Structures are given as structure tokens and as C-alpha cells.
Amino acid sequence: MTSQKQARARPARISLVLSDVDGTLVTDDKVLTEPTRRAVDALRSAGIRFAITSSRPPAGLRSVIHDLEIDTPVAAFNAGMIVRPDGSGAVLAEQLLPREAGDATLAYFAQRRIDPWVFTADRWLLSRPSGPYVDHERHTVSFEPTLVSDLASYLGGVGKIVGVSDDFELLARCEAELRQTLGATASVVRSQKYYLDVTHPRANKGAAVRVLADHFGIPRDEIVTIGDGLNDVAMFEQGGLSIAMGNASTPVKQAADLVAPSTNEEDGFAGAVHRFILDDSAS
Fold this sequence. Notes:
The protein is 31% helix and 19% strand.
């Protein structure tokens, strides 16, 4: 998943840019900067479509969709749910977590004292509101969690279960263990060093590339992908030119064709758009 691949040149034609959100489009404080907004506008002016994919639920992407005037299908839950961007909530395609995988995931997290969160399209369910990163997630998705006593009773129609911990080494070990435990019944990958996402086995960002290519009738190699996390590697592998953010980890950078000139805190997305996609000197 994180192996070095042979770098590709800028494709002769770029039809679409598919971007991750957290750690890529927005700053650590979840701000869309003016250079980022202008870079998206510049892509559209050049006739290049722009789309987003994220581990967030659809409801947690509303502000980004609104602020960037997204008019392409939105791949939420690591592409486990593809929705229209018009606010209707209409689902174009979905891959929900199988119930048996959800039960096994909750049991695994309980044994290791990792806080589980359960997400549907518009709800964030948890049992311990004082747990780590709750306030952080509240700020990220811009809606409140729902406190429930028994998460297992809500596992029908789930887009994602997240294991949350401030023990980053533990979560890294659990990523490999849980992936082996669940096998082909789920996709297991860290979207952040403190979040371990469990989704449908076909819910990964590589699927977002394939869905968008089919939706617009374009070759996958005309899609440029950009991201910073381990869960972005799947879309690097499925698209054309891939760009890792300057703040990405070494394995993510090794999996990409190019590395952005700076981090998400320093308008690395905008820099990558102008340098690698539009081939101009704007910043």
C-alpha cells in the first residue's frame, strides 16, 4: 500500500483534480485559505473539474461544498458514500459496512480500550463524550455527536466506524491487527494518526477515482489526485498523476509521483496546483 512507484510525468490532458480535504485543502484549524480558493477557481477557469473525497461523513462536508461551490459528486466515508453536492442528500452510490464487520470491530476496540465512534450519513454516535479528540471532531464536521449507551444497536446502515486514541503507536499496531482480523469483510486504514477508519471493503478512495471517471466518461489517467494520508494512497494508485502534500508522511510521499512545495499550513495545495497542474508561477 505504501510502496514506491515509478513516477509519471504530467499527463497530456487533465480533466479533473480529486483532492482530499483534511490535511490537504484545509489548514489544521479547518480553514480554507484564499490561495486555496483561488487555486480551485483557476482550475475551473482552465476547464478542469474539481472534486473532493474525505473520510468525513457527508454532513461533515457541507461547509467545504458550499465555500468552494463544489458541483461534482462528493466521495464521503473514503468513497463509501457518493452523494450529490446540491444539499439534497441524494446518494449516487454507497457501500455500507457489513453488520458482522461492525460487531467484530466494536469488540476489538473494546478489548484494547480504544474509543469507537459510529457514523451514518448525518449522525455521529459515541458513548464517551469526554474521550480524546471529541472536541476536535466537533470542530471538523461542524455538528454535534449523539450520545448513546449501546453502539452495537446502531450498526445497520453505518458508513464508518472510527477507533480513536491518543496512543498513536497503539493505533498503528491495531491497524495491521484489525486488518488481518477482519480480512476481506472491511477496509481498515488510518485517516489520521489518531483515527483508525473501518469501512466497507470496497470503500476506499481508489473507488472515488473509478466512480468519477465513469460518471464523467473520462480516462482515469486524466485525473490528478492530491492528499496527505495513508488513506489517500489508494486514489494515488487508481488515478493519473498523484501529488502528496508536504506534510504527508514518508510512506505517503513515496507512493506519490510528486510532492507539493509546502504543507497544508503553508498553502501547499495552491502551490501544487499552480506548479504541477497549471504550470504557471502564481502562488
